[in-house]
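Example A, followed by Example B.
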Amino acid sequence: MTNQISGVREVDLSDNERRILASWCADCAARSLHLFEAAKTSDPRPRRAIEAIRAYAQGAKRSGELRSSGWKALRASREAPTPSAEAAAKAASYAAATAYLHALATPHQIRHILGPAAQTAISIELFAGSDTSVGDSEIVWAAEHAPAEVRQVVQRFPNRAPGSTRVAALELQLDAALRRHGTYRTGA
């Protein structure tokens, strides 16, 4: 199907698939939440974003509160005291945004799908002294824990294009892993 206004192909994306994707993104983002909370103990915004997207994944409606929680987590990332905490808050923000994923086959949308896991991976990697093996291991975890529905959704969107940042490399790695059949393993 092609959108008549922009010429962009639309992607079939059911509400159930969006909720499964939201749940997986919340699981990914939650893995680095403690790094934000340790750095900024009195700031609940990233946790609230993850709680809001989990509620959506469990059947709650998309709401202004959900959208607002994502924006607030993004603002928290800008106020984070460390790069690791910043990435953890971004992961929470991006996870909350999955409820609003546009069903358009654009490179921008695939980055929304991959963003929570990639930001979590970079958060953990930075906390470990920029040890890339730590970030790579987190991407393996994310791929291994992606439900079949997440893999099917990813395959409807364009591949993640290479980029010049470490986050782009992690997104590219995750994109490739999710498009492979079967379980992703290191060295596969």
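Example B, a separate protein, is given below in the same form.
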Amino acid sequence: MGAPKLAHAAVSASTRASPSVVKELCYGMALGLFGGALWKMHHVNEKRKMEEFYSALEKNEIKVEVS
């Protein structure tokens, strides 16, 4: 019985692309800034809604009843 030969994907060093650390950092920072901007916009909108609610409550434009 002969030993079975394993097929390995042989990629030469010249065709293999090495990971670029600078590119990965730029991608990560861009995604982080984009996600942070979306999160900030969400919180600014929520704050605006609360301020509109409380200003309408002070002006007696709306009433809140506790049941």
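On Example B: The longest helix spans residues 21-58.
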